[in-house]
Every structure is written in structure tokens, then in C-alpha cells.
């Protein structure tokens, strides 16, 4: 299909403009320039013809050039800006509400001749060794494309630069830009997959190295993989839904190949994320087993140490009892009272010594039989 036919399928039918067209009512515009408008451009035949600085100027430039396309990039726009865009491009109120609230799951909705796409981008932060997620809302109409970005990812500047270097591709219209954005989001998953794979390798080393902090790291990475899975799984179904509409909406054959390639990549990424979740679950199980084994070994060592300590206490207590008997006898007869029995008995000393020996010997035999000595 030629570029002209593709663009015609994606633009509103326009009647031949009269010599003096009546001015169209201006859509409401928030007062003042807002930093949320990252960049707005108007393209015709794949080449930029205007770079407005405000939304109102963008609307005017688009109306002044029939057959052109507006590409408006926003970052965390205000409610007034979204209402201005909705009034100008007839955006559905539900889609505008989703774009304002953010925190949406990836999805694809069609409202008349406008597509509303929600994407979850991701990037890997090397310093923190964690995955950062961003949210992107895209409105695709017959002659406009609006991106509403919540978060640092993805970097749409590179997408715009790439499209501007290929006027033939950009001339295919908003649909081509949408596919380029999809490709950028999916390509951004590759560094994340590589970073997570490296983290899992490190975690495996830490698990078998006995690092006590590894359990927390496994848990945090597993939560990130749940979020990553929520970003990639719906995207597979979204791309297949777009591919199912190729014939109905007369999508250019080059764009069809482009989208199929993106679908292959996101399917591969989704499978890798599923594998990561399973691997982390297995690692967590192994770590729990190793921790349990370590705790059992420590408990066994404590039990053995307690047993050895008890044995020592038994020996000490036995000898203390043996030595206590003569000490008791000697203590009684060393009290120096005048009226004590057997104090002047001639056999008192031999009797006391023999008594001490008999008591000590008896105690020794008893403790020996109990294996305390």
C-alpha cells in the first residue's frame, strides 16, 4: 500500500477548504507556558514544518496546514492542559481521566477514530541495582499523536530524532510513530533483562556464600519482577490486537513487519520475566533450606556444647561433694567449744580421719557408678 493511501486511512476526511474558511473556535488553553509541554511539532510529508511553543499555537499550525500531523509530547501535564487537548482533538473523557490519574495497567482502547494506549516502560538503575518503572499514555488520532509521560522512562527524544531522520517512515502518519514508541519501550526492556540476570547470578553466589542479607534482596527483586510482568504480559495481547486490525484499517505492509518484530521481542521478554520469577522462587526455596540447615547445625552445636558443659558441671559438683564431707567434719571439730562430745576421747582423731575417708570413698564410688566422674 502506498504512503498516500496509508495516510488517507488514518486522517479525518477533509473537504476542500473554502477561500476564506471560518475560524474554528479555540480550545481552552491554560494560562501561561507550562514546562510539561516537552516538545510540540507539526509535520507534513514526514518533515517538520513548525515547532510551536504552546498548545494553542500547535492547534493553529495544524489547522493552517491540511494533511499535516501534530506530535505533542507532555510530561506530567496539568488538568487544564489535558482538558485543552480533549476539547481540540475530541478525546474521550475516560481516556483523559486515565491519563490524568496515571497508575494504569497497560491497555489498548479505541474511542471512535482515536486510539488510547497505556504502556509501562522500564529502565535498570545500575547504582541502586533496581528497576525503575515509568508510565506512558499515547493518544493516536487521524492527524495527531499525543504522548503523556509519567516518570523518567521512556526517553521519547531519541524516538523523535530517529523518526525525523527517516521522513518516509514518519510520512506514514501517527500509526508509524506509535509503532516506533512501542519499539522504543520494548527495546528499553533489554537492559533491564540483562541487569536482572546479573542480579540473579549475584544472588545465587550470595545464597551459597551464606550472606544473611540475601533474603531481603531476593524478596525485593521478586517484587520488581511482579511489576515487570504486569508491564510485559498485557503488551503481548495489545500487539496481537493491533496485528488483528491490519486488514481492517489498511496498515502499511512495512508497518506490519515492524509491529510483528516488536511483538516477537516483547514475547521473548515476557518469557524471560516469567523465567526470572520462577528462578527467584527456586532460589528463595533453596535459601530457606540452607538457612534451616544452618540453624539446625547451630542448634546441634549449642546442644553439644550444653551437654559438654553439663558433664563438666557434674564432675565439678561431684568433687565438691567429696571434698565437702571432710570439710564438714573438720569444721565441726574446729569450733573450739569446751563442752563438745568426744573432745577428750583418745580415739577421736583416728575416728574422724577414718570417717572422712569412708564418706569420701562412698561418695566417689556412687558418683563413679553414675558416670559423673
Let me know the number of strands: 7
Strand % is: 5-15%
Segments where pLDDT lies below 50 for 5+ residues? 1-34
Largest sheet: 7 strands, mixed
Overall shape: it is rod-shaped
Tell me the Rg in angstroms: 42 Å
Strand order of the largest sheet: 2-1-3-7-6-5-4
The average pLDDT score comes to: 81
The helical percent reads: 55-70%
Distance from N terminus to C terminus (CA atoms, Å) equals: 101 Å
User: Would you list the SSEs in sequence order as H and E?
Assistant: HEEHEHHEEEEHHHHHHHH
Total count of helical runs of at least 4 residues: 12
SS-based structural class?
alpha+beta
Tell me the quaternary state: single chain
Describe the structure.
By secondary structure, the chain is of the alpha+beta class. The protein is 60% helix and 14% strand. It contains twelve helices and seven strands. A hairpin with a 4-residue loop joins strand 5 and strand 6. The protein is rod-shaped.
List the helices and strands and how they pair.
Elements: H1 3-9, E1 37-44, E2 47-50, H2 55-64, E3 69-75, H3 79-89, H4 93-101, E4 107-111, E5 114-125, E6 130-140, E7 144-150, H5 156-164, H6 167-170, H7 174-187, H8 189-209, H9 214-244, H10 246-249, H11 253-332, H12 348-369
Parallel strand pairs: 3-7
Antiparallel strand pairs: 1-2, 1-3, 4-5, 5-6, 6-7
Helix pairs in contact: 3-4, 5-7, 7-11, 8-9, 8-11, 9-11, 11-12
TL;DR of this structure?
With 373 residues, the chain is an alpha+beta fold. Helix content is 60%, strand content 14%. The protein is built from twelve helices and seven strands.
Amino acid at each position: 500500500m502506498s504512503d498516500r493511501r496509508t495516510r488517507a486511512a488514518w486522517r479525518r476526511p477533509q473537504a476542500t477548504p473554502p477561500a476564506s474558511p471560518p475560524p474554528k473556535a479555540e480550545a481552552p488553553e491554560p494560562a501561561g507556558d507550562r514546562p510539561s509541554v516537552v516538545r510540540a511539532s507539526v509535520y507534513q510529508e514526514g518533515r517538520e514544518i513548525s515547532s510551536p511553543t504552546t498548545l494553542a499555537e500547535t492547534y493553529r499550525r495544524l489547522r493552517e496546514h491540511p494533511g499535516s500531523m501534530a506530535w505533542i509530547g507532555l510530561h506530567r501535564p496539568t488538568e487544564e492542559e489535558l482538558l485543552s487537548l480533549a476539547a481540540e482533538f475530541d478525546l474521550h473523557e475516560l481516556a483523559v481521566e486515565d491519563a490524568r490519574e496515571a497508575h494504569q495497567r497497560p491497555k489498548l482502547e479505541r474511542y471512535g477514530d482515536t486510539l488510547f494506549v497505556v504502556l509501562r516502560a522500564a529502565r535498570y538503575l545500575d547504582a541502586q541495582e533496581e528497576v525503575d518503572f515509568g508510565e506512558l499514555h499515547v493518544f493516536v488520532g487521524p492527524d495527531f499523536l499525543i504522548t503523556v509521560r509519567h516518570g523518567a522512562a521512556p526517553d521519547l527524544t531519541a524516538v523523535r530524532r530517529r523518526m525525523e531522520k527517516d521522513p518516509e517512515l514518519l510520512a506514514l502518519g501517527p500509526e508509524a510513530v506509535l509503532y516506533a514508541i512501542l519499539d522504543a519501550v520494548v527495546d528499553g526492556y533489554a537492559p533491564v533483562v540483562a541487569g536482572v540476570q546479573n542480579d540473579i547470578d549475584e544472588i545465587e553466589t550470595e545464597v551459597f556464600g551464606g550472606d544473611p542479607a540475601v533474603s531481603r534482596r531476593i524478596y525485593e527483586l521478586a517484587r520488581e519482577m511482579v511489576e515487570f510482568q504486569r508491564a510485559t504480559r498485557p503488551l503481548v495481547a495489545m500487539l496481537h490486537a493491533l496485528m488483528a486490525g491490519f486488514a481492517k484499517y489498511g496498515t502499511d505492509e512495512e508497518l506490519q513487519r515492524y509491529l510483528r518484530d516488536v511483538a516477537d521481542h516483547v514475547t521473548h521478554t515476557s518469557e524471560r520475566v516469567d523465567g526470572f520469577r520462577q528462578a527467584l522462587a527456586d532460589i528463595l526455596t533453596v535459601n530457606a533450606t540452607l538457612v534451616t540447615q544452618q540453624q539446625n547445625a547451630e542448634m546441634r552445636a549449642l546442644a553439644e556444647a550444653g551437654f559438654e558443659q553439663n558433664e563438666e558441671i557434674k564432675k565439678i559438683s561431684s568433687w565438691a561433694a567429696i571434698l565437702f564431707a571432710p570439710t564438714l567434719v573438720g569444721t565441726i571439730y574446729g569450733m573450739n567449744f569446751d563442752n563438745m562430745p568426744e573432745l577428750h576421747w583418745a580415739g577421736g582423731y583416728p575416728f574422724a580421719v577414718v570417717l572422712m575417708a569412708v564418706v569420701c570413698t562412698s561418695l566417689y564410688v556412687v558418683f563413679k557408678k553414675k558416670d559423673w566422674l
